[in-house]
Amino acid sequence: PSYRRFPTDDEFFRNLHTRDLYNFPRQKYWLRRLENHGRKERVDVKNFTVEHILPQNENLSHGWQTTLGPDWQRIQKEYLHTLGNLTLTAYNSEFSDKTFIEKRDMPSAPEKGLSRSPLNLNQGLGHLPTWDERNICARADWLAKIALNVWSGPNLSDQILDTYKVRSTASKKGTKSKVPNRNYSLQDHPNLLLESLYPVYLAFRDAVLELDSCITESFLKDVVSFAADSPIVEIYPQKSRLRLTLNMPYTLIRDPRRVCKDVSDGGWSGTGDVQVPLKSLTDLPYIMQLVRQAFDYQLSGGGDE
């Protein structure tokens, strides 16, 4: 009886291609599992750093722009932090923003090149002539197939599954039936219907629900809650803004604009330690990357600790 469910293999495989795994809260966990799958001599990934094969620098060198073609900005933005473009290395500082060929061969020190790497994650890179959108996607396919074996979905018999099904039970004789809680709706939150805030609420709602199919929206007495297995973000509608609370520790939030407020010291009845205002549609893209952090925190099990 949970909002959360196991994805199908197709969903898992597809989402691995597009998710930001570089900023994933358990980054070293997934790297360790992928690198050591099938190994008897395990590699301690703590001895390595994460390498973006296609560099993070927004001002890519002419060599990289030529390799990626006229659409290089889209490719960098779309694939930078995804599975296909990430690997492990002990030579991150030496690689810097070098071209793929330089990272692959390292002419001045060949033993440092990706082509000579003993890591499983770097298999096949030494045979590639270039690093472009096609090869990033092909490597993501290869790693995603490994991931399906590392994190295989549960395969339980109907007999076992039947023990977890929620059944309706007839009320016992002599017991009082409970009065159901009132069902609240959008109409119970008049501030959300204000002309200045209604479009903001709708855009925010759609953006949160698009994060994952396991997320649901619930209208409560004073709050609108978005939850998976546990609350992710809650809206407390006010006349001039939507006051949001994110269900994650304030110390973990990445907030370069410093719009978040720490409410972990008590005096606040909401769920979560992070409070942030949402006033207009122009603020939405930044606010959503904060909400994504809370969702990833909950998904990684942080909310169960």
List SSEs in N-to-C order.
Answer: HHEHHEHHHHHEEEEEEH
Strand order of the largest sheet: 3-4-5-6-8-7
Shape descriptor: globular
Distance linking N and C termini: 20 Å
Rg is 24 Å
Low-confidence region ranges: 170-180
Oligomer: single chain
Structural class estimated from helices and strands: alpha+beta
Beta-strand content:
5-15%
Main β sheet profile: 6 strands, antiparallel
Tally of helical runs: 10
The overall average pLDDT, rounded, is 88
SS elements, strand count: 8
Helical content, roughly? 25-40%
Describe, in plain words, how this protein is organized in 3D.
This protein is an alpha+beta fold and 305 residues long. The protein is built from 10 helices and 8 strands. The protein has helices at residues 9-18, 27-36, 62-68, 72-79, 92-95, 100-105, 133-150, 158-162, 198-209, 284-299, and strands spanning 49-52, 86-89, 216-219, 224-227, 231-237, 242-246, 261-262, 274-278. The strands form 2 sheets. The chain has a 6-stranded antiparallel beta sheet, with helices on one face. A hairpin with a 4-residue loop joins strand 3 (216-219) and strand 4 (224-227). Helix 1 packs across helix 7 and helix 9 (198-209) runs parallel beside helix 10. The longest helix is centred in the middle third of the chain and has 18 residues, at 133-150. It starts with 8 loop residues before the first helix and ends in a 6-residue tail after the last helix.
